[in-house]
Amino acid sequence: MIRRRLLQAIPVVILATFIVFGLLKLVPGDIAVTLAGDNATDERIAEIRAMYGLDRPFLVQYGDWLLHAAQGDLSKSLLSGEAVAESIARCLPNTLLIVVLALFIAMAAGIPLGILAASRPGGVADRLVMAVASLGVAIPNFWLAMLLVAWFALGLGWLPATGSVPLSENPWESLRHAILPAIALAAGGVAEVSRQLRSSLVETLSSPAVRTLRAKGVSSTAILWKHGLKNVSVNLLTVISLLANRILAATVVVEAVFAIPGMGSLIVHAAILRDFPVVQGVVFVMVLIVVAINLATDVLYSVLDPRIG
Fold it and tell me: Which InterPro entries match (predicted)?
């Protein structure tokens, strides 16, 4: 199964990078003119194009980039000259830290809330959890991020407002810098996990099989933990997998608010300056991460339910 999924992922990676490569070519302006500087002659601009291969046909440029990317060479920044792989290696840990922490918060809060709401459908707890979930879905990440900065960083001074610290240098400070961005990213995730889990559990606990267990005298707690959660585990895993991908994408906005030097900030800065190799390299790595998440999800599917293959 893993081999089949990997083979299926190859066209996805090629298609995603090809589309981005093509869209970058449609961006107005000429990067060769920027690199050549003010008052550059036409000969100098042509020389810059030839130097970076910008004068070659589109498919040739993309094929050459893809061949090198498959070997781990993501080219160099047109502006700084730094290897794109080095820039990504510096920024990726900051992004992964807040993504993992946000996903943990979403699960740690969303799963208990979903169970609480499903235990008594239509009750006070159910209505309260659903109201909070609706609020979490409605609040934009960037707006919540600014509120968190105003309250907990600038107002109370409990947590840093901006920046990041490498995990290898100071784990505690690194986590302190990641808490507020992670909460901003996790708010919608808490709502989504709790709502989806509540819906799946209510459906499962009202099934004929569960009614039979109740008639046999099995306690509600045993039904919930041994049968209810087991039956909804695949659906819950799907929700968490999709949530991880969405959180990864949302880091672009949140990193800008908290001035975190992560992948989102890197690609935005590169896109503004038309540093195409950096943009393409970041997209390539992000696609690989999404593919890895989906592959891990497929493997866990077969663990939770052997009938899925």
Answer: BPD_transp_1_N (IPR045621), MetI-like (IPR000515), MetI-like_sf (IPR035906), Sua5-like_dom (IPR006070)
Return the H-helix or E-strand segment holding 13. Answer: helix 2-25
Do 117 and 198 contact (CB within 8 A), yes or no?
Answer: yes
Instruction: Dig out the tokens for 278 from the structure.
Output: 């950096």
CA 88 to chain centre: 15
The residue type found at 111 is: I
Q: Which of 231, 237, 219, 216 is nearest to 294 (CA)?
A: 237
Q: The pTM is what? A: 0.82
What is the per-residue pLDDT across 209-243, written as a single tens digit (0 to 9) for each?
Answer: 767 767 766 666 667 676 667 777 778 888 888 88
**Residues 6 or more apart in contact with residue 30 via CB below 8 angstroms:** 45
Amino acid at site 208: P
DSSP SS3 for 8:
helix
Tokens representing 238 are 């799907």
Cβ count within 10 A of residue 142: 15
List CB contacts of 70: < 8 A, sequence separation 6 or more. Answer: none
What share of the chain has pLDDT > 70, as a percent?
86
100 vs 107: CA distance, rounded Å: 11
